[in-house]
Design goal:
- By secondary structure, this protein is of the alpha+beta class.
- The protein has a domain of 159 residues: Muramoyl-pentapeptide Carboxypeptidase, domain 2.
- 38% of the residues lie in helices and 9% in strands.
- It has eight helices and six strands; from the N terminus they run ααββαβαβαβαβαα.
- The strands form two sheets. Strands 3-4-6-5 form a four-stranded antiparallel beta sheet. A two-stranded antiparallel ribbon has the order 1-2.
Length: 284
């Protein structure tokens, strides 16, 4: 072997410290990668332990029985407030107008609109406003179908001028104090609104008399008139509020909504229902 060849081999064997460090680092990195690969393979392919199902005994619960009645709130069923401002109590053409000794019609010679003949039996030919007339016809028919008996109209709409004559007739018979308990002064009468009717029995017994309350007609009206929108306007024992004696024959149309609300709440007079002052006497 020549001296040159030996010299070259000797140089190859001598490696610098920097190169040796790089080789060591490379070997360590490769070893770490290899170890990571082995661990991942073991975790991936190793058999997993089977889960043993645990038997759970269900706790018996009672099945609720459906109720036939709706569940109520603790303070009773939810009820919407009745809108007392839905219709005017001042406008004479309103179904809810309140007319009494302190609340005359405005104007006092008011003439009701849409007046029609009411096709029912009568003593005096009855005229009412259309809606009230339709309800009277239906109510009279329902009474006859239910009881086999009949009712009739004693008196209905009266104009201002007619009321003048009616009132003066009572004054002549009873004096003004007595007349004021029985008949309204002109401009203060519900009959002038076209929404009120005096009702009597067939045959005509107890007409315009408090004994009408004890007839089949009077009892049925007191219990059922609200269903057709009528209220007993001058109830027994309410003279200090309404200003009139008990008139079991005088029914006023206010509409089914208001009549039903008054029946449900037990409020007997329009004055009480709308929070109006009692009207026992005329303003001086």
């Amino acid at each position: 072997m020549t001296d040159d060849l030996r010299r070259d081999r000797s140089q190859l064997r001598r490696v610098s410290p920097r190169v040796r460090r790089r080789r060591v680092i490379a070997v360590l990195i490769l070893a770490a990668l290899f170890a990571a690969i082995v661990v991942s393979a073991v975790l991936l392919f190793a058999p997993r332990p089977q889960e043993v199902p645990v038997a759970v005994t269900p706790t018996p619960t009672s099945t609720p029985t459906p109720s036939s009645t709706p569940t109520e709130r603790p303070d009773g069923p939810l009820k919407l407030m009745f809108d007392k401002r839905k219709f005017s109590i001042d406008d004479p053409a309103s179904l809810w107008v309140v007319v009494n000794k302190l609340r005359p019609l405005d104007p006092q010679n008011y003439a009701a609109p849409d007046l029609v003949q009411t096709p029912v039996k009568f003593v005096n030919s009855p005229v009412l406003r259309q809606e009230a007339a339709d309800k009277i016809v239906a109510m009279f028919a329902a009474f006859k179908a239910e009881t086999g008996k009949e009712m009739q109209a004693q008196s209905a709409y009266r104009s201002y001028d007619v009321q003048v004559n009616v009132y003066n007739g009572w004054v002549n018979q009873l004096g003004q104090a007595g007349a004021d308990l029985t008949s309204a002064r002109p401009g203060h009468s519900e009959h002038q609104t076209g929404l009120a009717m005096d009702i009597s029995a067939v045959p005509n017994t107890c007409a315009l008399d408090q004994c009408f309350a004890d007839t089949a007609q009077g009892k049925w009206l007191a219990a059922n008139a609200y269903k057709w929108g009528f209220i007993l306007r001058y109830p027994n024992g309410m003279t200090a509020i309404t200003g009139y004696e008990f008139e079991p024959w005088h029914y006023r149309y206010v509409g089914v909504e208001l009549a039903t609300e008054m029946h449900t709440t037990g409020i007997k007079t329009l004055e009480e229902f709308f929070g109006l002052p009692a009207a026992p006497d005329y303003a001086k």
